[in-house]
Write a structure and sequence with these properties.
four-stranded antiparallel sheet; alpha+beta; about 35% helix
Length: about 140
């Protein structure tokens, strides 16, 4: 399945708002941000470098792997829904990310409802990309 990496990228206004709530993470080596099935602690914003999102089947077979670009939001669906992460997020050595806790993210959305529409745009882009990949178009 081939997803569009740009589907995970937020617009500048949302990225700037998340930046004010984020903690800088610099990966000194390849690192796992979260694992598929883990309870969500927050979301990650890829500032620079590279990262991948992947999904494995119950038998351990990789069924999805996508490289994302700077500006991508990693772990957004789990953060919003409070459900386990549906993907595994990994960042490459040298990547810089911002981490926003679920509590800070929720607070930001409650205090700036206009940003919620921007978050919905990212989620909608992810869904459209997944549907295109499933349909083969």
């Amino acid at each position: 399945m081939k997803l569009d990496p740009s589907a995970f990228v937020a617009d500048k206004e949302l990225l700037d708002a998340l930046e004010t709530r984020s903690t800088l993470i610099v990966c000194e080596e390849n690192c796992v941000l979260f694992n598929q099935g883990d309870p969500p602690s927050g979301l990650y914003v890829l500032r620079s470098g590279s990262a991948t999102l992947s999904m494995t089947s119950q038998t351990g077979e990789t069924i999805l792997r996508i490289s994302v670009t700077p500006g991508a939001l990693l772990g957004l669906p789990g953060c919003i829904a409070g459900q386990p992460y549906s993907l595994t997020g990994k960042a490459s050595k040298g990547a810089e990310l911002g981490f926003v806790s679920r509590e800070d993210f929720s607070d930001l959305m409650l205090n700036n409802p206009a940003l919620s529409l921007k978050v919905l745009s990212v989620l909608a882009a992810e869904v459209r990309s997944a549907r295109r990949a499933i349909s083969g178009s």
